[in-house]
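Can you give me the bound-state structure? Components:
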Amino acid sequence: MIRVLVTDDSRVMRQIVIRTLRQAGYDWDVREASDGAEALAAIQADEPDVVLSDWNMPNMTGIELLRSLRAAGYQTPFGFVTSEGSPEMRSTAQEAGALFLIAKPFTAEGFREVIDPVLA
Amino acid sequence: MTATVEYDQIHAIAQEVFAAMVDGDLGLLLPWDGDLPDIVDALVAWVDLHGEWSGRAVLVTASDTAHDLARVLLGLDDGDAVSRADLVDAFGEIANVVGGNLKSLLPTPGTLGLPQVGDVLPPLAGAARVQHLPLSWRGRLLVVDVWVTLPTATPEGTS
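Here's the bound-state model for the whole set.
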C-alpha cells in the first residue's frame, strides 16, 4: 500500500484532500502534517512513498520543505496541492523537483488525471 | 498597477470553488436577487495579496451559514456541532482558495498571505473596494468583495 504524507495547515483542507484521494480510488495509507517543518520531521523519521503538500503555510512553506528535502538527499516523490496555480508557481515547483501541482479547487477526476501518470 | 478584475471573473472563481469544494454543482451560487438583507452575526474571512497588484479577497456571511459551510466541508451531518477552530479553518480556507485563484488572474507575480477570519473586516490602508458580489448560496446571502490598494499618487515631475 502506498504511504502518503498530506501536509496542509488547514485541517479542513487535509480532510478534503484525503477524502478526494479516496474518491479518486487511491486506497492509500495516510499520515498528516500541519506545516512544512512538521512534515520535514515526519519524513526524516519515516519516509513516505509520496508527499502531497500545500504551498502557503506558516513555519515552513511547501517550497521550502521540498528544497530542504532535496538538499538533505531525499528524493521522495512530491506534489503540490495549492490554491495558486500560476505558470510562475508551476515553473518554480518543477525546478525544485515537484512532480506535479494540483490547483485548488480540485476534483477526484483532476486528482486522477495528474496522479495516475506519475504512478505509472 | 491597477489591473482590472472583472465581476464575471470573480463570480466564476466563486462558483468553481463552491462547485468543487461544497456543492458538486456549478449552479448553486447565484447572483443575489432582490433587496439585500442585513447579515446578522456576520463572519468575515479574507486573504491579502501583496505585490505590484496588492489587495484583498473577502467573504462575508452569517455565522449560521458559515457553520453550514463548515459542516459540508468537514463531511458532517446537519446539526452536528462545529468547533470555533473548525469554523475559522473552513471559512478561511474558502477565502484562501478564492484569493489564490484571484492571484492567478493577475498579470504580475506576487504573494498570498495566510487567511484570516473575524467578526469584522479590519481596514486595509489605501484600499478601495473594486468588486462587490452579493451571492445566494442555497438561498442565503454570501458576499464576495475584492479590494485593491491604490497606487500612491506620484508628484508631478518625479515620474
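A couple of observations. The longest strand of chain A covers residues 3-7. Chain A touches chain B at residues 9-13, 15-16, 19, 56, 58, 82-86, 88, 103-107 (CB under 8 Å).
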